[in-house]
Amino acid sequence: MTQVCTIAWVHGMVQGVGFRYCTQHEAQRLGLTGYARNLDDGSVEVVACGEAENVDRLVAWLKAGGPRSARVDRVLTEPHQPGREWTNFGIRY
């Protein structure tokens, strides 16, 4: 299996609605590592690393709207070469 990392920026009503926690749960279910964190512009940054198929599944979940309490307007993604390896999927503050 091919291991990849993707960085995504999720825009919409995605802060204050449990988005990072739901993203963490979904990423852990898919066996991914990385993090989710709120950005100052109101978006959420997600770095996901793992099997390419599962990273794609997480991105599709993000694009589908994530948790029910959120409203996702757009998701921008690009391949990512992290400066470190993660051992789990965390929430950054």
From TrEMBL:
Coiled-coil regions listed: none
Annotated SUPFAM superfamilies: Acylphosphatase/BLUF domain-like
Acylphosphatase-like domain residues: 5-93
Enzyme class, broadest EC rank: hydrolase
Signal peptide from the UniProt entry: none
Molecular functions (GO terms): acylphosphatase activity
EC number(s) from the headed UniProt entry: 3.6.1.7
Protein name: Acylphosphatase
Species of provenance: Kosakonia arachidis
